[in-house]
Automatic annotation (TrEMBL):
This is ParB N-terminal domain-containing protein. Transmembrane segments: none annotated. The lineage of its organism: Bacteria, Pseudomonadati, Pseudomonadota, Alphaproteobacteria, Rhodobacterales. Residues 20-35 have a biased composition (Low complexity). It comes from Pseudodonghicola flavimaris. Residues 85-181 form the ParB-like N-terminal domain. Gene3D superfamilies: 3.90.1530.30.
């Protein structure tokens, strides 16, 4: 049986028609799908580019913030809550005279009711404690509030601007003075006492009180500096005996200085009247000074046989003494002996401290 052959129709190209070389072009339509691996690689590359851009932006922002932080820190504008027990006020002599502050009660009430409007200024020490630069009364108010209430959560820390370490002692004094020059209640007696303390401070380069006035109170007018220098003359003669120099009005102080320069014996009379009169009030002391300024012999409220006291000089002696507690830095001047040591003397028993000082003072008479 014979097999039947199949016949296929083949269309041959017409004359002049050619076949295309290679693969025919793909028909128009959607692009072929990529493999999952190729898609993952592409997406990862795009993600890495985006991440690199974000990281660069974050680094730029952090650098800007760090630069701003450094700038603000140099200006003392970085504020933190600092525990009161870590704050000392020993580096600078304060321009606030020692004694009762009649206006402190008002400041305490204001801070208790509305809070602290202006942070204090501190300098961080190498031992981790802080040294007060500005804000003595604000710090005193916080300490009083803590003592009154016992509320350590509210009054145990105080807002403070932290100054960087290393600023010169002269500049720190200027910071304190310039802030307090705007105080209406700071007296010429207090400013004169600060100038004297500045000149006697072994850490400062200036030992002349008159020149110290020019450096410390450069922001003040010429007339005010002249008044401060006049009160320095008053403190030179009576500073060791005056208890309420911060209460002496400008007019009385200037008149009294003129009387003392014209009649030096009046200074001796005042010294004799003030010696041992520890129970006097500010008004009683002022009345005594008014009589002296009126050229009337000051009445000796408590007569004593004390010899005239020599005028304090401007010289000072600075020396160091080794001890079991460390190297003590000492400053000796007329009417003043200062000992600086890295030790919290307030933590010592008072009786023990008094006995040590008594032995030292008795030894000076040998």
């Amino acid at each position: 049986m014979s097999k039947k052959r199949r016949i296929f129709d083949i269309d041959l190209p017409e004359e002049g028609e050619t076949f295309p070389a290679g693969k025919p072009e793909a028909a128009a339509g959607p692009a072929p799908r990529r493999s999952p691996m190729a898609a993952a690689i592409s997406e990862n590359a795009a993600s890495l580019r985006d991440r690199a851009q974000i990281e660069a932006q974050i680094r730029a922002e952090n650098d800007a913030l760090a630069a701003e932080h450094v700038r603000m820190k140099k200006l003392g504008l970085i504020v933190d809550l600092v525990p009161l027990e870590r704050i000392d006020a020993e580096k600078l002599t304060r321009d606030r005279a020692a004694g009762a502050d009649e206006d402190l009660a008002e400041l305490v009430a204001s801070i208790r009711d509305i809070g602290l409007s202006n942070p204090i200024r501190l300098e961080m020490r190498e031992d981790g404690r802080y040294e007060l630069i500005q804000g003595y009364r604000r710090l005193a108010a916080y300490r009083q509030l803590l003592q009154m209430t016992g509320d350590t959560d509210r009054w145990g820390t105080i807002p403070a601007g932290i100054l960087p370490r290393g600023e010169g002692i002269d500049q720190l004094y200027r910071r304190m003075v310039d802030e307090n020059l705007v105080r209406k209640d700071i007296s010429f007696g207090e400013m004169a006492a600060l100038a004297l303390a500045y000149a006697r401070d072994p850490e400062t380069e200036q030992s002349d009180p008159d020149k110290a006035v020019a450096e410390l109170f450069a922001s003040a007018g010429y007339q005010k500096r002249s008044y401060i220098r006049s009160f320095i003359k008053l403190l030179d003669r009576l500073g060791r005996d005056l208890k309420f120099v911060q209460n002496v009005p400008r007019a009385l102080g200037l008149k009294l200085v003129a009387v003392l320069e014209e009649r030096p014996e009046v200074a001796e009379q005042l010294q004799a009247a003030l010696k041992g009169w520890t129970s006097r009030t500010a008004e009683e002391e002022l009345e005594l000074l008014r009589r002296a300024a009126g050229a009337e012999p000051p009445a000796a409220v408590k007569p004593t046989a004390t010899a005239p006291v020599a005028r304090p000089g401007k010289a000072k002696t600075v020396f160091q003494v080794p001890s079991t507690l460390g190297q003590a830095k000492c400053t000796a001047a007329n009417g003043r002996l200062e000992i600086r040591l890295d030790r919290d003397f307030s933590a010592l028993d008072r009786r023990r401290l008094e006995q040590a000082l008594q032995r030292m003072l008795d030894g000076l008479e040998d």
